[in-house]
């Protein structure tokens, strides 16, 4: 696993300030991962043998019975407006609620808003993720409204996830703490760049990745909720907690899919888990760009690491969780290649933790922030 480089850097200015000039501030961006792996220029596609497609077709009734129930009916889902100032209450009440929100944000640090923007952009880049899932052989939505259970899951999962970005974006907009023009530009760059997770159109790889990623984002949003409480914004803490709960539920679904794949095809699934771990789990924001800083992902990743939102320790804990959850050490009857993959994965958390301990011994240089931040947001 690649570790965060704590070398000194200049952080782009992303927070709003008063200025007499009409010139806009530097771009805004952030992420929810401490690591980055540069995408390979050579992309492998359709690596799954054709005979494996039948396995996923045969699992469609199982998906209907065991995965679709993880979705919530729309009427039972929370909606962003439930956490935000409601304009339907009339202008005076709405303005009062906005003023209260802006008062609460004064207790939150500059770094917190960097990370919150990053979480928002991760969620708001949803079109990229749905597109990615719909590249997977055997489980894609062939028509855009396919009745296939795999496709129903992907569309409904997307609909549930869509609320996350909407909620965080509106909160950031009302807070007055960030330059929303730069947020919007960065998001457009991000969606346009896409994501290169190197899944090879292979659903074995895809569902290992989504299991890992949902658990990682649950951890990130949960940690942001904790810091929001400490910073004096209990409503923001509730928002982050509600998002984390969705991510946890989605994690359960994807984890159960891998459970089933280990049951019906343990060799291919064990190889897929090891393959993803060897490549390292790339975070969805790894192609981040703000139009100016080509290293912005590394910069914001360092903030996430230092603030303890998502670190190499979390990475190791997620690995350990899935090794236990999928009972990987107990798998029997594997092929020679799959046994070697099993041994690699089960030993990996110890290697990651040793690397983490070595990194902790390195004294980080002081980071100089280049932005000018005005905490006195107009109430």
Number of strands: 2
Number of domains: 1
Report, as a whole number of angstroms, the end-to-end distance.
45 Å
Strand content: under 5%
Query: Rg from C-alpha positions?
Result: 21 Å
Shape: globular
Give the SSE order as H and E letters: EHHHHHHHHHHHHHE
Structural class based on helices, strands and sheet pairing: mainly alpha
Biggest sheet, spatial arrangement of strands: 1-2
Helix segment count? 13
Helical proportion, percent range: 55-70%
Subcellular location: Plastid, Chloroplast
Pfam families: FA_desaturase_2 (PF03405)
Family: Belongs to the fatty acid desaturase type 2 family.
Binding site for Fe cation 2: 161, 214, 247, 250
Q: How does this structure look, described?
A:
The longest helix has 31 residues, at 234-264. This protein is 57% helix and 1% strand. It has a single domain (66-359), classed as Ribonucleotide Reductase, subunit A, CATH 1.10.620. The chain has a two-stranded parallel ribbon with strand order 1-2. It is mainly alpha-helical and 379 residues long. Helix 4 runs antiparallel to helix 8 (203-231), helix 9 crosses helix 10 and helix 10 (266-279) packs parallel to helix 13 (336-360). This is Acyl-[acyl-carrier-protein] desaturase. Pfam families: FA_desaturase_2. Belongs to the fatty acid desaturase type 2 family. Fe cation 2 binds at residues 161, 214, 247, 250.
């Amino acid at each position: 696993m690649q570790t965060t480089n704590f070398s000194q850097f200049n952080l782009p200015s992303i927070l709003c300030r008063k200025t007499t000039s009409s010139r806009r501030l530097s771009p805004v961006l952030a992420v929810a991962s401490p690591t980055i792996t540069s995408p390979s220029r050579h992309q492998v596609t359709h690596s799954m043998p054709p005979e494996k497609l039948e396995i996923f077709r045969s699992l469609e009734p199982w998906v209907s019975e065991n995965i679709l129930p993880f979705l919530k009916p729309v009427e039972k889902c929370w909606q962003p407006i439930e956490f935000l100032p409601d304009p339907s209450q009339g202008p005076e009440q709405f303005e009062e609620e906005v003023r209260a929100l802006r008062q609460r944000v004064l207790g939150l640090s500059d770094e917190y808003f960097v990370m919150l923007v990053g979480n928002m952009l991760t969620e708001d880049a949803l079109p990229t993720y749905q597109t990615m899932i719909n590249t997977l052989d055997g489980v894609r939505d062939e028509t855009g409204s396919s009745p296939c259970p795999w496709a129903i899951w992907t569309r409904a999962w997307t609909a549930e996830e869509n609320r996350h970005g909407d909620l965080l974006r509106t909160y950031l907009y009302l807070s007055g703490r960030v330059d929303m023009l730069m947020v919007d530009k960065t998001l457009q760059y991000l969606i346009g760049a896409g994501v290169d997770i190197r899944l090879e159109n292979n659903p074995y790889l895809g569902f290992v990745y989504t299991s890992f990623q949902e658990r990682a984002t649950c951890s990130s949003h949960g940690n942001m909720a904790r810091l929001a409480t400490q910073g004096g914004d209990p409503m923001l803490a509730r928002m982050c907690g509600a998002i984390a709960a969705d991510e946890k539920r989605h994690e359960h679904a994807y984890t159960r899919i891998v459970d089933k794949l280990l049951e019906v095809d343990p060799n291919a699934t064990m190889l897929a888990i090891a393959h993803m771990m060897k490549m390292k789990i790339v975070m969805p924001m790894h192609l981040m760009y703000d139009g100016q800083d080509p290293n912005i992902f590394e910069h914001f990743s360092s903030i996430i690491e230092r603030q303890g939102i998502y670190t190499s320790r979390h990475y190791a804990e997620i690995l350990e969780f899935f090794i236990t959850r999928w009972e990987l050490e107990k798998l029997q009857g594997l092929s020679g290649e799959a046994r070697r993959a099993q041994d690699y994965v089960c030993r990996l958390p110890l290697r990651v933790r040793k690397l983490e301990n070595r990194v902790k011994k390195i004294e980080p240089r002081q980071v100089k922030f280049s932005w000018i931040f005005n905490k006195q947001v107009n109430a």
